[in-house]
Amino acid sequence: MLTQYQYKLGAQCPKQLYFHLNMKKPQSEMVQSLIDQSSEVKDYAWKHLYPEAKSVRSPGFIGDLMQSMLATSLRNPMAFARFSDGDREVTCDFLLPYGEAQSWILAEVRAGTKVTDVYLDEIAFKYTVLKSKGVHLAGIRLHLIDTSAEYRGKHVFKEVDVFKEVISLAAQADAKANRLISVLSDAEAPECQIGRHCGGKTPCAYRDQCWDEGLSIWDIPFLSAKKEQQFLDRGIQYLDQISTADLAELDLTEKQEQFVATMINKRIDIDMRGAAADVDCWSFPLVYLDFETDARAIPVFDGVKPYEKIPFQYSITIEHQDGSVEKKWYLHDSEDDPRPGLAARLFEDLEVVGSLVSYYDSFERSVLRKLASLYPKYATRFLSTADRSEDLLQVVKRNIRHFEMGGSYSLKSVLPVLLPHLSYGDLEVQNGLQAQIHWRALIQESDRVAKLKMIRDQIEYCDLDVQAMVELVDLFKSWGEYYAHQDAISASA
Fold first, then answer.
1. CA 20 to 30 Å from 334, out of 63, 99, 316, 323?
2. 457: pLDDT strictly greater than 80
3. Is 60 contained in some domain?
4. What's the whole-number average pLDDT of the chain?
5. Does residue 313 sit in the same domain as residue 393?
């Protein structure tokens, strides 16, 4: 039987559904966090939008079906009603009786902020099953997260009428479902082309089964569908398939052509003088700052908007002109609002006046400015610090092109090339999403020993981000010193 989750996998790629059925992998932390978020949003909608709806969940699949059909016959508002036509099975978020003509309103809830083709396709699949069971829908609502709404103990949803759009997709969804049902019993994986559908917000967990090693055409920055087709028409999927002649004939922007040429020719183009000059003009003491933030679909604190970034941790290294270094950090470790305590400590730790150095500084500046608006007594210092911000990312982008970075300028890509002794690979927390997930677990952890370990893990990750920035700047300065020495030798010769 094709479930709605299986339909979603198969709609992205039938081959993904086949691998899911035959070589199931555990959910990644990212995917599991999205699943948990979806469940939280649906439960919140139940409480605030449809409290009258009664859950028809019961032990076992058959029990669910019987409860749903009974509730349908009694015309009761339902939450999480399950229906099956024998080949397909769906769970509706909310079904509400409408009028006196045995009609219903289907209300679906998503954690996204706008209507997407994926959402409409999923709902169209549900519509086909409901129709086959004789459930007549008079309307279909899609509730999405409203990022302009401040949380004040009430709901943060906006409602969109998607009835016409879903009806127009029903036949297409029905045909797609029939094809996917055959995949459930296929002995071999279906033939499917790789493409941009393999990635996205929920990348396929079985990518390694289909993709070769190396960069593909979908790694080319800002590649439109029209330009993508140029490559596919030539039978090109990977960059190492591109010849010099191909590159001359393809319609690419200057930056895209530069990216491809760097990768296929394994170019290394590093402007050491330029990087050194960029950082040499920064003012001591250099204040290296990195924030970690949490962003929830359903805010926890009053006055916060959905998906608003809430800082809960920072790491600071202050480098003085005499070479001395100070390290400061803050990590909120309880379930109350982290911002008051973080802002108070940050105010003390930013008492020095010098250049603020961060990697992608618009993020750190936005956090500082938001804290300034929340806490006026700290505003002058926070705003002046934000105004002295320098972006190390832009220095790297301007001066370094290296094929081993794969076109990425994230620290995870830059460090193996420039500072290979620094690595996130041995850390428990290895990226910003993991930091967010682990922090949510940390603040709820009751075992003291386990909590202390989680605190150390969080601090190690955030501190490595800052240490990487410090050592990159030191490296660039050493390049400047080398060329200054060489210039002096040349001048005296």
1. 316
2. yes
3. yes
4. 93
5. yes
The answer to whether position 367 is within a domain reads yes
Residue 452's domain is classified under what CATH number?
Answer: 3.30.420.10
Regarding whether 454 and 472 lie in a shared domain, the answer is: yes
Q: What is the pLDDT of residue 294?
A: 97
Q: How are beta strands 356-358 and 325-331 bridged, if at all?
A: unpaired
Residue 488 lies in a domain: no
pTM: 0.90
Residue 387 and residue 351 in one domain:
yes
Residue 44 resides in a domain: yes
Cα Rg of the chain (Å, integer): 27
Question: Domain boundary at 238, 265, 292, which?
Answer: 265
C-alpha span between 288 and 161 (Å, rounded): 48
* Angstrom distance (rounded) from CA 157 to CA 351: 41
* Domains contained in the chain, number: 3
Give the confidence band of 61 by pLDDT, cuts at 50, 70, 90. Answer: low
Q: Does one domain contain both 335 and 241?
A: no
Query: Is the same domain home to 31 and 168?
Result: yes
> Does the pLDDT at position 72 exceed 70?
no
Query: pLDDT, tens digit, for every residue of 124-140?
Result: 999 999 999 999 999 99
CA angle 195, 199, 204 (to 5 degrees): 100
Q: Kindly state whether residues 150 and 235 are assigned to the same domain.
A: no
Taking alpha carbons only, the member of 326, 375, 371 closest to residue 351 is: 326
Question: Domain check: are 258 and 282 in the same one?
Answer: no
Q: Span 256-267, mean pLDDT?
A: 92
pLDDT value of position 302:
86
Domain extent for 401: 274-483
- Domain CATH for 12: 3.90.320
126 and 11 in a single domain? The answer is yes
Q: Which two tokens stand for residue 221?
A: 């920055």
